[in-house]
Amino acid sequence: GSKELKSRITMRMPDKCPAGEAITCMYIEMKKSRSQRCFVGFHRSVMVYTVYTGQLMTTMRNAHTREVSCLLHNRTLRLLCTAGRDGSVRVWDDTYNLQHSFCGHTAPVTGLQPYPHGPSIITSSMDETVRVWNLFSGLEVDRLTTGHPVTGVTAHAGQENFVSISPACLDVWKMNYIYQLLTPLDVPVEHLYYTQHPKVPVRLVVQCSDSAIRIASPESGQFLTTALLPVGTEIVSTLHEAEEGRLYVLTGEGQVERFDTAGDCPAKKLAPWPAEELSDITALCLYEFVMDKEAIHVASFDDPWLKVALEVGHDGHPGSMEKTLLIAGNQHGQLLVIDQRRKIRVSFSIKAHEGPVHHLVCSAKLDILASATRDDRTVCLWRVFPNCEETLNLTRRVLLARPTAHLALCQQSICVAWNHELTADYSTLIYDFVTKERYTHSPDVDHADSITDITALDSLGLYATASSGGDIRVWSLENELIRTIQLNAIAQGLSFCSYQADLVVAIDGHLHKIPSNMYLPRQMIQMTVAVSMAVCGVEEPRRVAAGTGILPEEDKCRLIGLPSALRGYTPANMEDETASLEDTDEWREEQRLRRLVLP
Predict the structure, then answer these.
(1) For 257, 342, 344, 475, which has the most beta carbons within 10 A of its beta carbon?
(2) Do residues 446 and 418 make contact, with C-beta atoms less than 8 angstroms apart?
(3) In the prediction, which pLDDT does 581 show?
């Protein structure tokens, strides 16, 4: 009944290895295929062997300045992590080129493990610390002080706890997460925003770097439909007309592409805009006035003109005063009101700025439009008259200290964010256009790095900003800091996703949700109960179109998603990766002998 281990392959060290030096650590790649590798730490170098044949593939000489102490391979990202007694941790790609060098430990690194959630690693050291490093950003995102030297660390995928090992004790650490995975996307996100239409559930519009726009339900996290542009197309901005199901995509060439998202998936591309009138577009904005029938019916008893307007209606539809306007800014500093009812044409235009218009936001409740550029320090406020020929009328120019980087509108105020690299000024200004008051805050609560995104929530009167420093800050309408949320990664996009102030943040190509009860003060959490709800519910994904099978292979991958472990592989590589050891004659013979010997 005894068993023994039988050597199948002997991996020999090169003849040129210095005498007296020994193997310090080993790591075998976690996969069962003919290309499975074994990484061997030998003094300051790392040797890579093929497990199937035992041959030496390559030698990474002088990977560290002292002995290599730990090895780890991330198969999903195809990255090799090495740690040394010099206190450094280094990350190498699949061709063994250096990608990151993590410096922070002041003593030898003794443990190296994958982080249970997300693309990060955990390291332990004799300097009495355990640290977490992000493989995408190359930054230290967390640090724990144990009070005694740490000789090792263990962690397992999906577990909420990990253990640090010391000579005198074992410390068990529990990981608390302020955000939770909503939708695995695995594509870098360029921009993220939500739709607010009282007749349609809230939707998330996700602008991705693979030239695709995905519309998701924040309740279920499922993607409802996807609009595909040719790979490599630069996307400047997008607009989603939720009720009609139209999607407008502004490309880097100044052209606007239109899609029908109400039908099958992928979204159907509609006829393009006439290029002679609508060229050099740099910004888009959607004005959607939705009538509150009960409030207007009551008001019509006291206002005879409103009663007549209800009887006449809009566009020949009695009883309807709802209207949707598409407003664009162009390279010449003009604002264009685009009429799409019968023929796509510019119904009104006006000169707004000297340079290109880069930012447009509006509020249909207050009939206000704000425009700004990246070149000057002015924000223009316009009154919108949706049923008049002269649709826009300038009401005020707001002078700023810095050029506008991001612009948002909430209730009766606008929030301007700027990034001034020379003075490290990353701040926000809130201007109330009814009381004409400006609200600033102390530099002590400014972001420490450039602001990357901004979002606003009308129902509670909140602004939220994200920065490349890995933090999110929530502000009141008086520009008072309500909460700082420190992330262990850099937010690629930020947006509110419900009327109760739930946040969605794009991190490392995935969408994560931050519930409002995780960051709002208790008084504001109680306020969310009284927030009036629009149409709620979980929307079902669109039916996949019948002709999807004839799409190019790259479009199929963008449509249905492709696991990150297979991204970048050619069919030959994929066949080699999946060639199991079970297909070999040696394995079959071994199994035959096992059946003869073992009962």
Answers:
(1) 475
(2) no
(3) 46
For 160-196, the pLDDT digits (tens) are 788 999 988 899 988 777 888 888 787 889 999 999 8
- Please compute, for residue 574, the number of CA atoms within 13 A of its CA located in the half-sphere on the CB side: 9
- Please list the helix, strand and coil fractions of the chain in percent, rounded to the nearest 5, in that order: 10, 45, 45
CA-to-CA distance for 338 and 241, rounded, in angstroms? 14
Q: Which residues contact 261 (CB under 8 A, 6 or more apart)?
A: 215, 224, 225, 227, 240, 245, 246, 247, 267, 542
pTM, two decimal places: 0.72
Q: Which residues contact 157 (CB under 8 A, 6 or more apart)?
A: 114, 116
Is 309 exposed, middle or buried, given 0-12, 13-18 or 19+ CB atoms closer than 10 A? middle
Q: Quote the CA–CA distance of 129 and 443 in Å, as a whole number.
A: 32
Positive or negative: CA dihedral 415, 419, 423, 425: positive
Q: Is pLDDT of 473 > 90?
A: yes
At residue 64, the pLDDT reads: 93
The DSSP element (H or E) to which 474 belongs, if any, is strand 471-475
Alpha-carbon distances, residue 11 vs 7, 260, 478, 581 (angstroms): 10, 60, 68, 18
Q: 39 pLDDT band (50/70/90 cuts)? A: very high
Closest to 171 (Cα-Cα) out of 206, 129, 221: 129
* Cα–Cα distance for residue pair 86/43, rounded to 1 Å: 12
